[in-house]
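Annex B. Sample input.
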Amino acid sequence: MVSPESLTALAPPPGLLSSELDDLGVTLGPDGATLRVWSANASGVELVVFDDTDLDWITDTVPLEPVGAGVWSVTTPLLRPGTRYAIRVDGPHGPGNTFNPGTLLVEPYARGLVSGGFEDWRAVVVDGSFDWGGVTKPAIPMDRTVIYEGHLKGMSKRHPLVPPALHGTYAGLAHPAMIEHFLALGVTSIQLLPVHAFATEPRLLQHGLTNYWGYNTLNFFTPHGAYATEENRRQGPEAILREFKGMVKLLHQAGLEVILDVVYNHTAEESIGGPRSSLRGIDNRSYYRQQGDGAYIDVTGCGNSVNTSTDAAARLILDSLRYWAVDLQVDGFRFDLAATLGRDANHHFTPDHPLLRAIVDDPALAGVKRIAEPWDVGMGGWQTGNFGDGWHEWNDRYRDRVRNFWLSDVDYARRASTAPVGIGGFATRLSGSSNTFSVERGPLASVNFVTAHDGFTLRDLVSYDVKHNLGNGEQNRDGADTNRSFNHGAEGPTTDAGILATRRKAMRNILGTLLLSAGVPMLTAGDEFARTQRGNNNAYCHDSALTWLSWDHAPWQDDLFAHVRRLIRLRAENPALRPSRFAKLDEHTPSASVMEWYDQTGSTMSIDKWTDPAHRTLQYVAASTPEFEAYNRILLMVHGNERPTEVTLPEIEGVTSFVSLWSSADERPVDVEETFAPGDVVPLVGTSMRLFRVE
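Annex B, continued. Sample output.
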């Protein structure tokens, strides 16, 4: 465990980010505390201290002095644990500047916040002490990582075994009932939607809605207060911080990692004319991307874009990551719209951006998982596969190909008798997306997903052809129009037994593909028991039963959970399914999987069959090249059209048998391992998969 006291010694290498930006924010000392604030264009900065109970009662004001490199500083006994404070910043008028000496601003490095009302926040000094009791990070290797992405509140809000006082809280997520679920499922890493302090946009409040997902950050250092228990909210930011750390500690004790979805690309200050709560009032020209006349360059679609080409903005993000990874012991980060973070002074993306390299190279972040959402909405914003070493990326190409193969292609084939494409592109995704990620980065650069918080749930993906977002208050204009979904013959709920059975099998095929593919799988919370949002593919603004997980399941949902549990266990037991490197022709590559491809007759796949839309059946054989585990080999059958077929097991030198481990045709996984010999014929139902261990 890296101690907070080690942060200074772990400063970034000289020349990467300025050492003059060290120790920004409040640093406690024996005679009070020192506050350091950066503003390159300010003409004056003032500390404002408030009464402990009345957030409108200013008790003291103290000016900060310039100390060079844009830093303003003051040391005062007024700042002590529990002190409520804000800053006021004055400066010149002109394009890009929005200084107002009367505006109370949140200090960017504040570790605690309290609200005095809408758009009215006070920072709070916290001590941050906590007894970790020797509990350390689980440090799950990437090849064994199975990510479970979910909303902190939504996961435990309705769980019947979690006490009501803990529903939807940090403590609730770490309750034994939740931990039991995670461990029973077999996931290794809980990835939380944003837990940085955030606010709801005024337009949503006008519609009686809320920003449920939390992608509207107020402050990069403070846990969202509303996710703490009522008792700890009443006690204040110090108690909220302890509850967050307690959650991390308990999850770590259970061997589970905590990954945070972090939103550094924009803030809750929105576009010009929006709230002036922090960075905009401190130094708008330096913190946000803009044109010469002060108009914002918005590559996020959220009103503003943080300008990471300035050292101070980049350092703010890096220091925030260090704080969460070291002080709060977080195991990893998923970077929302990460392409924005890698844009230079000309607003072009570069994988060698100083911030992106600093995040990888900083010793304080050693061992931390770094997952990029590799796009934004600006020019050149789609960058899947283009991040550098040390980064893992959400693979939207994987998502789209898997959805196409099992859903939209099948829909097309029903109407045109033949699917639009063959199986080759699907096989490339199944085996690690080598056409997207370089040999040097390998298959683990790909975070594979088919669903996420944004979009249809798995159940809705197989139940709806179009989105149903009227409840969002935007006349169904919001949310993606292209979903590659397929309702299988009825839109939404149905009592047709045939359609329901086909939908269940489609879900099993998708989950089987996700959990048996090379790469790092990400499962969306609730998909393991087929939760629904009733066709809403953009439920960001619903904090209700629509988005909270339901723990009341029908028998078929329990069957689906059993499939997911079995698949995750099989992934763990068979290293051939989770290679760390791409194999190279005629070379021995440790921790790779040597792949062979056969058609349904047991013959080597021909070039023509890879691309033939009429041929969507293959046998995928992967053999591990042992480095840390015993030798292992698997065979996966994939059949991608709705007509049943028969598949002949291949004759492979040295192979004596194939042991059946899993089939998507089963409503519930069977426990009997059936053994077949090379040359045996195996029947497959339409659109199905089957996994074997090769012996």
